Description:
Blueprint: H1 2-8, H2 11-15, E1 28-31, E2 34-39, E3 49-57, E4 62-70, E5 81-87, E6 104-109, E7 117-122, E8 125-126, E9 132-133, E10 135-136, E11 139-144, E12 153-163, E13 169-173, E14 184-188, E15 190-192, H3 224-233, E16 237-242, E17 251-259, E18 262-269
Parallel strand pairs: 16-18
Antiparallel strand pairs: 1-15, 2-3, 3-4, 4-11, 5-6, 5-12, 6-7, 7-8, 7-9, 10-11, 12-13, 12-14, 17-18
This protein binds calcium ion (CA).
Calcium ion (CA) is lined by residues 87, 89, 91, 94-95, 101, 103.
Amino acid sequence: MKARLFVTATAAAAATLLLAAPAMAETCASSTPSQAAFPHTPQEQLVPKVVAIQVTVDGACQLTVQDTVTDRPSGLIDGDSLAWYLNTDGNPSTGSPLFAGADFVVMLLGSYPDRPMLIPYASGEFDVEAGTPVARTGFGFTVNINQLNATPGAFTMVGVSQWRGIRSYTDFIPPVTSVQASSVSFPVAFTPTATPAPATDNPTAAPNVEKPACRPPRLIGKSLRAARRAITRAGCQLGTITRPSSRRGRLVVVKQRSSGDRVSITLGVKRHR
Ligand SMILES: [Ca+2]
């Protein structure tokens, strides 16, 4: 898959650098609306190109990122791709060292133009297998902040576009000035919600606590992708993912634990007899 080629190209270099432990995610129930725009002059005067990125945070924890693209009136074609590398935990030392501490990348491929994928950074690479589809918005996407292990404050972002044309080229937003990509920054403000209080017998005692509809499904033996799907379907949130040090073989869930509506999982290598 092209996505794997593209995102693993950086993995070898990234893996040599030490990574700090991921920050604790905080839950967003409502966010402060904000907008940011990043106009861009491509490094090469070729068409098509991205001439701006718009970022919008609404009041309901939805983040929308959209490129303004010229000369692709019918959308992306096979061989084009747009990517947005997001540092969502406020920590440049977690995530991809080559993409300014990006903890996630969202990729929109010309070969799958209606299906942007949200891909987490884990164990030294962007883990395509753990990718989940998110909603497309024009040449961009909309995602819930709670899918991003977000810490309130500012996100940083590196935009990348690849174009298939007479001469194919890759363009970075902001322009690359060194071996590592630089990034733009925009506010993602929300007040983290406290852990829901324990349920009481009197349902009127805690009117502000929304009872999670989550009923944790059984995940043992499932692949990460299947587990992720089951967790979403059950109205739960995926918590921490613990991975084995060796990634040889097929990874399946070997342990799960729930806390509130979050289900954390431990992956292990599936043994064949
Ligand atoms: Ca980070």
